[in-house]
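Worked example 2:
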Amino acid sequence: MKQTIKLLTLAAAMAVFAAPTRAQKQECTEENKNAWYKTFYDNRKGDEAQQKTAYETANTYLESCPDDPNDAQRPPMKKFVAAYKAMLDARKAAEDFKKAIDNKNYAEQMRAGKLLLASEPDNVDFNVILGMAGLGDATLLNESAQYAKKSISLLESGKSPKVYTKEQALAYLNWTLAKSKLASAPADALTDLLKAAKIESEVKKDPRLYLDIVAAYESGPRAKLSEEYAASLKPDKTETDQSKLILLNLNPVIDNQIDAEARAAALTTDAGKKKEILTDLTSLYKYRNKTATDANVTELVATVLSKPIPDMPAPVTSLPTPTPSPTPATTGGGATNPSTNAGKPAGNSTTTNTSNTGPSRTGTVTGTSTPGGTSKPASSPSPKKPR
């Protein structure tokens, strides 16, 4: 006879439920065996209290009577007890999971969440929460990124989370993926960061996201192009056609870095942090715009959020074709020479060296914080508890 046990919903699983008492070994007589089995059988499909009775009675039977291959009553009780214990383990994991979310204990979220996913591997909420845990605890980033990938796959297949809107979840999950790559593959991290920033959610209003974008540009494409630029100069550090082409690719990268830093400044409310960001921003902006003033930087910060977030610059593969100069007027057979500086990239000199790659950033902000809660110096958020 096939035995069944009710599976409780997540909400019920998180409710307080008294653990069954341990079975007391009793005399294994035929009379007792039949009585125990009848009690088990009559209660096994009932409500929670009845199922608890069935479990305790079955345990008494199993503890009191030896394993006998000819005992037809033993297998269904053994199966029921195993299923019931699994349910209790899941319930305890759910309670631990909720407590970890309430306490912002991300390591415990990961531990308890894994237990819950063992029986529900495609539960989108569990995957999403684990996929965001690394934003709250950097030591979990690599592990959290795996759940972020799984979560994105589930969301794109049509699953709907309950703890976040789909847009919020996707933004946070892409941020997790980006942060897991930021140190080792900053150029790849940029792709995920820009995805997160372009999704309409609370994430795009977090200044720490844009500081991560600044850092990714700095150690990713800007560092690579700056190195290539330095290597392409002549021995006397003057320009070559190759260095000019590299510079045409480097300058837009720096401009995008300026845009991200301006967004971070616009969104930062802490006066001390805002001052630090503005100092870096002003230095970089004035490097790219030689006649710029502090007022221009102030205007940039005031208007930047009304503009679309720029995509990664498209590669420039060839130098612009020079415009032919008109035939110069002659005076007494002599000619005047056209300017040799026409078309020079902004913010750079034709007698350049590696300083043409601009001022370097002083570093990125690190730490943890809670979105929507009290901010601490950080470059990443931590997920909110389920609503």
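The two ends are 42 Å apart (CA to CA). Residues 117 and 123 are 7 Å apart (CA to CA).
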